[in-house]
Amino acid sequence: MSKKVLIVGGVAGGASVAARVRRLDEDAEVTMFERGPHVSFSNCALPFFLSRTVEESDNLVLMCPTQFKKQYNINAKVNSEVIQILPEEHKVVVKDLVSGETYEQEYDKLFLSPGANPILPSAIKGINSKHVFPVRNVVDIVHIDNYIKENGVKDIAVIGGGFIGLEIMENLKMSGLNVTLIEAADQIMRPLDKDMVQIIQKEIIDNGVELIVNDPLCNIEKDKVILQSGKEIEAQMVVAAIGVKPEVSLAVKAGVELGETGAIKVDANYHTNVKDIYAVGDAIEVYSSLLHKPTRLTLAGPAQRQARGAADHMYGRTVQNKGVIGSSCVKVFELNAANTGLNERDCINNNINYDFVYLIPGDRVGILPTANPMHLKLIFEVPTGKILGCQAIGKGNIVKRIDVIATMITMGGTLENLKELELCYSPMFSTAKDPLNHAALVALNVLNDEFKQVKVSEIRKIVENGGFIIDVREPHEWELGHIKNAVNIPMSMFRQRLNEIPKDRPVYVHCRSAQRSYNVARALGQLGYDNIYNISGSFMGICYNQYFEDITLGRDKIVSEYNFK
Predict the structure, then answer these.
(1) pTM given for the model
(2) How far is CA 151 from the centre of its chain?
(3) The domain spanning residue 158 has which CATH number?
């Protein structure tokens, strides 16, 4: 007899289960239920409809029920909500949301892919107002677009500085609206560390978006929102991108066990504790291969791999579940940002002994007009040198670099491995010493105590405490902007001016992007100076690190002029 396979939910997880089952078993009776009107759509591309980067909302829909039936012989039933699972009877109860009728359908195997629901905190007054919109599916994004046009909306508040919030913000701004992005935490983009995220926060305000951090939303009124600080923001419309929580209500009623993160607990084969019920996608708990504990990861790529693994297991095929490391990327106006693995917060919270390097190499040969700086932060374990994570931001092909590091992490790579990694080179694509090889060399120097560094985020305190700082750039570079109390001793002259450099106190060295200052620091170490620190990120990194908070907090800047070139 052919298997009766039922799938609750479509999109990345459910639709991938259906397609994999069909590839493995032409005789299986496959039925997929989706409570919305679209069973397969690009939820990651939803924000791009608002700017018409995706021209039509129909373009977001990848496959319709008719296509599923004709091409895959899969029964895709939309506007059909599974309201109950009867595990003992191997049946589900389905409600037709159009007719209101309910019916039962049998299964041999059941796959749950219900996804996650937008978080709408009840503590926020007015959160359920008609001009407040979550973002989950095509219907949601069309409602947002229609409300803007029908009500002549000019000012919009986007709540939440995660991936969806940033993309919604950017696309609304591109469509000509006044946008305020509000984040309750002290930074946007939590996968990135605060020192790196300052670069993106600068990009946002430089593009005319008002960015507010560390100030939670408290009240939503008809034409404004009110923050915890009392600040009022004009907004005729609010988009809530605060976050998501796993949709587990159906599973819980069926006796499916939840894990410690509040998501559905599954084994290595994505099977739940209930016989013949699997679960995949945003609703499940996954295993962090770096932290060695359960976590949640709401990304389409992992959901598709889970779907394949679950379907394979059902047919007795070998499944290798290596857990997740967490790799993601986002575009914010002219910048690209990506990350993989652990950030500093992860390491600190999990008592991991780590260190990192932050450098700003060029993304290709510098004489080319298309060359741009790349902000690169590489995190590694001490003392093993095992690569734990990486973050990169720039205008060029940032994602390529992070993909390489993701591969290294997956393979258990170390700094020594990365140092010797042979990568493609052409002046149009990279530098002869690839930025990743460069990062590995600097990191090995730190790991092996070849030189000492100070974090760019610590430089304000050093300046305010009167630390001795040397700027080794040439005078014409110095004049374009420098740390206010730094001493200009150019690299071309430092050997003749050693008498100006003290030996009885810490000395902090920097240039434009750390390469010259590193060489000076190494030389001074050989000339009898044992308290020399290279400033991580150097002057360009300092400018990016300070700019956003200088502007938004109205504090005195520690540089004579910012210089981002």
Answers:
(1) 0.94
(2) 33
(3) 3.50.50.60
